[in-house]
Amino acid sequence: MKYITHNLEETQKVAHEFVDYIFSHQNDKKISGATIVGLYGDLGAGKTSFTQGVARALGIDETIVSPTFVIEKIYELPLQGRPFVHFIHIDAYRLEHSSELVSLGWQKIISDPTNLIFIEWPERVGDIMPEHIKINLEHTADGGRQIETFS
Ligand code: ADP
Ligand code: MG
Fold first, then answer.
1. Cut 0.85: pTM above it
2. Ligand 1 pocket by C-beta < 6 Å: which residues?
C-alpha cells in the first residue's frame, strides 16, 4: 500500500481503508497472537492522526488522544470492531527502555488474538517487537504525507 495524502481528512480515509484491509486478511493470518501495526515516522508525520482514523473506522466514539504521556491506552471495541475485542494504542516515544513496556503487560497483550495493537515509535522497543505490519509516514516536499507499508 502506498498513498500520498494532502490533509488530515485524506490520511484518515487511508486509515479507514487500512482497517478494511486488516479485516479482510484476518483469516489468512499465519502468526498467532495479537494483530500488531507499527507506525514509523518523525514527529508530526501523522502517526496519531492515522490511529485516530483507525479508531473511528472501528466505531470508537471516544476521542483518541496522543498517548505520549500515558504510554498506553486500551479501548473496548463495539461489535462492529470485532473480531477484535480491544484496540490498544501505544506511543513508545518516551520509553527509556523496552522493559517499561514489558512492565505494562506487553507479553500478555501481544499473545491475545482479540487485541489489535497500534504502536507509534516501535523502533524504540525494537528488541521486543514481534512480527508486525509496518507503516511508514513521512512529510512530502509540498506539505503532504506519504503513507506506505514496508517489510
Ligand atoms: P505524529 O503522531 O506522527 O507525531 P500527529 O498525527 O500527532 O503526528 O500530527 C500530525 C499533524 O500534521 C496534525 O496536526 C495534522 O493535522 C497535520 N497534518 C497535515 N497534513 C496532514 C496529512 N496529510 N496527514 C496527517 N496529518 C497531517
Ligand atoms: Mg503521535
1. yes
2. 5-8, 10-11, 41, 43-49, 66, 120, 144-145
How many angstroms separate the alpha carbon of residue 67 from the centre of ligand 2? Answer: 7
Residue 11 Cα: closest atom of ligand 1: 24
Looking at residues 33-46, what average pLDDT do you find?
A: 97
**pLDDT value of position 68:** 60
Q: Would you say residue 98 has pLDDT above 70?
A: yes
- Which ligand has its closest atom nearest to the C-alpha of 137? 1
Q: Distance between CA 58 and CA 37 in Å, rounded? A: 15
How many A from CA of 44 to the centre of ligand 2?
Answer: 7
- Please, where are the H alpha helices in the chain? 8-24, 47-57, 99-103, 106-111
Closest ligand 1 atom to residue 137 Cα is: 3
Share of the chain above pLDDT 70, in %: 92
- Given a cut of 90, is residue 138 above it in pLDDT? yes
Q: Residue 19 C-alpha to ligand 2 middle, in angstroms?
A: 19
**The three grid cell numbers given for residue 95, joined into one nine-digit string:** 520509553
Q: Could you tell me the domains of the chain? A: 2-23+33-150 (3.40.50.300)
d(CA 9, CA 15): 10
